[in-house]
Amino acid sequence: MSFVDTIHDRLAGMGGCVAVREVHAGEPVEVAAGGLLERVRSGRAFLRERGVARGDRVVLIAANSIDWIALDLAVMSEGAVCVPMYVRQAPADLRTMIADCQPALVVCDDAIGLYPDDDRRVAPVPGATPAPVVAPADVFASDPVSEGDRPVALADDDLVTIIYTSGTSGAAKGVMLTAGNVGHMLACTTKRIGELLADVRGRACIFHYLPFCFCGSWILLLTALSRGSLLSLSMNLERLRDEIAETQPHFFMNVPTFLERVARGVREKVERRGGVAARVLNRARRAVDQPLPRSAVDRFNLWLADRLIFRTVRSALSPRLAGLVCGSAPLSEQTQRFFEMLGIGVLQVYGLTETTVICTMDRVGGSRPGCVGHPIDGIEMTLGEHDEILVKGPNIFQGYWNKPRETEAVLTGGWFHTGDRGQVTDDGNWRIVGRIKNLIVLNSGHNIAPEPLERKLLAAIDGAGQVLLVGHGRSFLTAIITGNVSAPDVQAALDRVNIALAHYKRIHGFYIHREPFSADAGLVTANGKLRRDAIIAHCADAIEDMYRRRAS
Hints:
This protein has 3 domains: 3-250, Rossmann fold (3-Layer(aba) Sandwich), CATH 3.40.50.12780; 254-317 and 322-436, 3-Layer(aba) Sandwich (Rossmann fold), CATH 3.40.50.12780; 439-551, GMP Synthetase, Chain A, domain 3. The protein is built from 16 helices and 27 strands.
């Protein structure tokens, strides 16, 4: 029995219980488990009417919603392959990916501008029959298939989804994940989230704001459905904090940007108040940085801060919060310690789309700031050449769609070459150093992983949005910084950071780029990762000026 059967059976057993809720500014929109299954059956009928067969690709380009979930389940229940794409991706990129995966059907929100000439079809390859394009609402107008119509039986090696990578250094590649990949991962995530929510009485409420088209977000969606949790969907990121307060979740998944924004907001609010509160917070921040076991004075300062500040913060965020998970990019040690100080545990995860999103995850009660945890069940990890992380297990993808050479380049003897540089502690806890391809080699021969230094500098400069180090083939490092920051503040931060660094890692110049690098300009990926080569090309004149001024 596949994970799709498991989800169907769980929903069927829940009957009238609310399964998914859309959090709107007015009244939330809810659907019971039975109602969600009804939509799934309508979606399956629609797919059959359109001639979608087992193994056919169905592209889904839409924001998170109840309908998104129902269509995804309908596609997999028919044995077809769902290809989710980011609704805010540039239309040209979407058209390229659609042509690559050769779909039988495209389900797309009207407002995206995918086809400016209003031609509601797209030819996947020259000479092929154009794939029809329909709106999500059109899918659920069909009479549902019979309640007894079970999902198509899926073997472990059956393809269930193609998820396109972010493409930081080139064209996006379609990662093929199988029923076996997803089934293994859901067993692991259900177990770990169960441990995190072990003290929750009754049904757990999981809040979700990350787009389902990203693998980690999709796996959490399926985990929530498998567990029978109440899944609350954010419908407006501008109301994110209000939505969390209204929902009062037990758990939600995060990217570092949100957690860093929360931490910064707490600090700034307390600092504006000044007086006793500011002094108490500063003492607590110093205390949490001390090695264990903490002194009696440090324990008192943390207790006092909890009574005066942290209880209010936890209540404002969610009084029922059992913990958080953070992935997508490394969370700074500073931010993880800040949440530890607040009394909110943050578990880091590490993985890639090619590994069905998770390789390691912090253990409940055993996280170590700066590390990303131990390998999850059934996963082997080791270090290869240049300390590259290699992974083997049932979570490893089948390959890249239509790209056999690229697949062969990263899969050797069952081991997936992640392209990430790592370190592992004696007790098996992993640390991510950076991307091998991002390694900066100075003309002195020194090798530098830029990501740890970028994170340090970003944390040291108030108001900085993004930091990118430059220096490959040159004699020293410089930095490009975005945000509303002043040159004196940046220089002061550089001085503080540089003093603790080896001479070759010190940063000797900077350029302030006021506007943040954006996906619209092609300078970051859809999920916020910097396109380094594109940024360096975009800022080429400013970079040359930095090095000329230093040499003169």
